[in-house]
Structure formats: C-alpha cells, structure tokens
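Example 3.2
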Amino acid sequence: MPTADSAPLPDSAAAPPHRGEAEHRVPRERRPTPWGRTALVLAVLMVVVLTSALVVNAPGRYLESTILALIADGLSVLALIAGIVGIVARRDRGAAIAAVLIAVLGNPFVLLYGLGALT
C-alpha cells in the first residue's frame, strides 16, 4: 500500500536532470580596459573638434568656435588623463603615449600661447 511519502511527483515538480561535468560553465575572465586606445580615440576626436572650431571661426562665428574650442580642451584633458592611466597601467602603451603627445601638443591653449609666442 503506497504511503504519502512514496507518492509519485508530478512532472513539473520533478528534479531537473543532472548536468554533467562537460556542461559546467567556466566563468569568463574580464578583459582589461584598453586605456591607450580609449585615450587615442579621445585625442583624435579632440583634433577633429578643434579643426571644426577653426573652420567655423573662418566666417566670423566666434561664439560657436569658442564653444567647440572649449569642448576640444575638455577632450584634450580626458585624453591626457586616460593616456597617463594607460601608460602607468601598461595597457596599450604605444597608443597611450601617442595620445598624450597629441593631447598636449593639440591642446587649444597650448596652441594659442605657443603660436602667440612665435609672433
């Protein structure tokens, strides 16, 4: 005579099938942040924004060119910081060094005072 403990379980309450060792999921390793490439992209974007600021300034639209130059300056600072982090963390070091050079030499204020000193 069946007891309450030996009653068959419904299909929905049955235990899931056992997962074999081959199906065990291995956790993925986190990829390191590519600081050098990120800094290089920011530096190139800074050059593009600065160039567009100079082009907009040609017809005499000073407000728009000033805003674009300030955006380029902010991108330059971000590229410089990301480049320094990339150099220190040894993540894409070559790209980080190139980004630091572009960020420093292409900074609007450095260009303004550097070219102003030559006149």
